[in-house]
Design brief:
This protein is of the alpha+beta class. Strands 1-2-3-4-5-6-7-8 form an 8-stranded antiparallel beta sheet, covered by helices on one side. The longest helix is centred in the C-terminal third of the chain and has 32 residues.
Length: 139
């Protein structure tokens, strides 16, 4: 995974492990009623607004890390759930269920990107709340 720093929305390039070839990317959707991520295949071509439709859509409760991956036909191909009673910022545990024929490593890469994105959002929110408390003279 490699985060694109110059992107309108949080976007991570996905690379194949052995060759290092870019195989696609995951990006957070801009226009959606709830948080949604789309996964695009590099082989489908296109760029920006002219890109091909996503091959997978990821939706669910990202704050609690419970989400589903559906293919371009709307079929459920993977499910990810936070696993364990105790979670630590640097050590989250997940249960990943993958349908036959689905690339498990792709699901894990997408899970890592989503986890990273929401950890960053959480840290920004915490910092803003601390600054607001500090400006009001609170604890």
């Amino acid at each position: 995974l490699d985060r694109k720093l110059a992107a309108l929305t949080p976007t991570y390039d996905i690379y194949e492990g052995i060759s290092g070839t870019k195989i696609g990317w995951i990006e957070k959707d801009v226009i959606a009623l709830t948080d949604t991520f789309s996964v695009y295949a590099e082989s489908a071509g296109g760029f920006g607004p002219l890109k091909a439709p996503p091959v997978y859509r990821i939706s669910g409760d990202f704050i609690d890390r419970n989400f589903e991956v559906k293919n371009d036909e709307g079929k459920l191909v993977a499910r990810v759930r936070k696993n364990g009673l105790f979670q630590f910022d640097s050590f989250n545990h997940y249960q990943v269920q993958v349908a036959p024929g689905m690339d498990a490593m792709l699901v894990i890469a997408c899970t890592c990107a989503i986890d990273e994105e929401f950890d960053e959002e959480h840290k920004k929110r915490e910092k803003k709340e601390q600054e607001q408390r500090g400006s009001r003279g609170g604890w």
